[in-house]
Specification:
- The protein is built from nine helices and 22 strands.
- It is of the alpha+beta class.
- The chain has two domains: 6-268, 3-Layer(aba) Sandwich (Rossmann fold); 281-397, no CATH class.
- The strands form four sheets. Strands 1-2-7-6-3-4 form a six-stranded mixed β-sheet, with helices on one face.
- The structure holds adenosine-5'-diphosphate (ADP).
């Protein structure tokens, strides 16, 4: 979370204005620029070569992506990778230095154009809730509608329906400081949804809540935003949260959008070693290619034994020296290693996980494999075999160890 003042947040969160007025003027190529007085309705949102500098530092490097109406997009990346900057540029909290952001054909941000947040038909939900402290729960939610809904009875009905949905009808007259963190975040979710904005931006909304509450609220966010049909841009540094929520995940690495795709694609076909790491690897092991197999896979030799490996997506190998990224899910523990694709190892740690056990296994050459699941418990210090099928074994050109996020 970066330093947006509370006052600014409150103003943004409460300015969820419907896209009723659509006057625009032309901007070459049939594209349009929104006039300062107009608002923009839900549409495809496009980042077209967007760049952002903070002094000399390039925080966003030529970002291209599009978000379809109703799509749930999660931006995932480590701290400092540019997630908040992208969200703030889309929300109109930051100006951009190159490229364009468009809603449909309407340019809302470019170096020459900047439509303010309250004219973008979007709502935001922040990590620290940003509720008005002097307003009740119902007033906080209703305030977002006051400019667009003049009929007080309709307004009350809409607020009541939303509070019902987030399970807070019985606390409508309470003030935010009398609510738990989870309840306050439900109020900001209701406030974001009540005006049916074209888009909702979530800035790490679960990170100040405890694990149990995070899980419950995540499910509510997924269900209520999909029911609303608003498009969503959601940022997090938590891979499991991203994969659980997203239709599409964008991975940011030092200001660059390195991959944008479905969670399954990111997991099975990571574009870079960084993406592989950020979406979970059991281990990273150096290897040398021995031969190309008729299947298109590669037989490789590691210092612990022979494995079969595959390439991911459009990866190109320029030498026989490769680094294997091992996914833990397909790896199987058995009593011994019997041939190609199987290594010997020693169980270093075992942790009970309800459905079974996660193991850490050290191969004979000293590499550690993390999160190797088995429904059986293999005791610490026991010698085991590890079957590593080709789908678990993704080869990239030889990497320095520093690719880990
Ligand atoms: P993330 O949300 O992924 O943690 P940010 O978008 O906040 O990343 O930051 C991206 C980069 O831009 C970081 O190097 C950060 O230090 C820098 N940055 C972000 N906001 C500012 C700012 N207001 N002034 C200067 N540098 C900033």
């Amino acid at each position: 979370m970066k330093s947006i003042s509370s006052e600014t947040k409150l103003n943004i969160a409460d300015s969820q204005i419907q896209g009723t007025e659509r006057s625009t003027w032309k901007y070459g190529n049939g594209r349009r620029v929104a006039k300062q007085s107009s608002t923009v309705a839900a549409d495809v949102v496009t980042f077209d070569g967007v760049e952002k500098y903070y002094a000399e530092q390039k925080a966003l490097k030529s970002i291209h992506l599009s978000i379809k109406p109703g799509q749930f997009v999660v931006l995932l990346g480590p701290s400092g990778s540019g997630k908040s900057t992208m969200l703030r540029c889309l929300g109109g909290l930051e100006k951009i230095d190159a490229g364009e952001i468009r809603f449909g054909n309407t340019v809302v941000s470019s170096p020459r154009v900047h439509l303010p947040p309250d004219r973008r038909n979007l709502a935001m939900v922040f990590q620290d809730f940003a509720l008005w402290p002097h307003m009740t729960v119902a007033e906080n939610v209703g305030f977002a509608l006051e400019r667009s809904e003049s009929d007080k009875r309709v307004l009350k009905e809409k607020v009541g329906a939303l509070l019902e949905k987030v399970g807070l009808s019985h606390k409508a007259d309470r003030y935010p400081n009398t609510l738990s963190g989870g309840e306050q975040q439900r109020v900001s979710l209701a406030r974001a949804l009540v005006a049916s904005p074209g888009m909702i931006l979530f800035d790490e909304p679960l990170s100040s809540l405890d694990a149990h509450l995070r899980e419950r609220l995540r499910v509510e966010i997924a269900a209520l935003t999909r029911e609303s049909a608003s498009s969503v841009l959601y940022i997090t540094h938590d891979q499991s949260e991203a994969f659980a929520l997203a239709d599409v995940v964008g991975i940011l690495d030092q200001g660059e959008l390195v991959q944008f795709g479905k969670p399954e694609t990111l997991y099975n076909e990571p574009a870079t070693p960084f993406v592989a790491h950020f979406t979970g690897v059991a281990s990273q092991i150096d290897a040398t290619i021995q031969e190309r197999l008729p299947t298109g896979h590669y037989r490789v030799m590691t210092s612990a034994g022979q494995l079969d490996a595959r390439l991911s997506g459009s990866t190109i190998l320029d030498s026989d020296e490769v680094t294997l990224m091992l996914r833990s899910a397909p790896i199987h523990i058995q009593s011994d290693a019997f041939g190609a694709g199987e290594l010997k190892g020693r169980v270093v740690d075992v942790a009970y996980r309800g459905r079974g056990y996660d193991h850490v296994i050290e191969t004979m050459d000293g590499n550690l494999l993390h999160s190797v699941f088995s429904e059986f418990r293999w005791e610490r210090q026991s010698t085991v075999g590890i079957r590593i099928p080709v789908e678990a074994c993704i080869a990239f050109p030889r990497q320095a160890r520093s690719t880990e996020p």
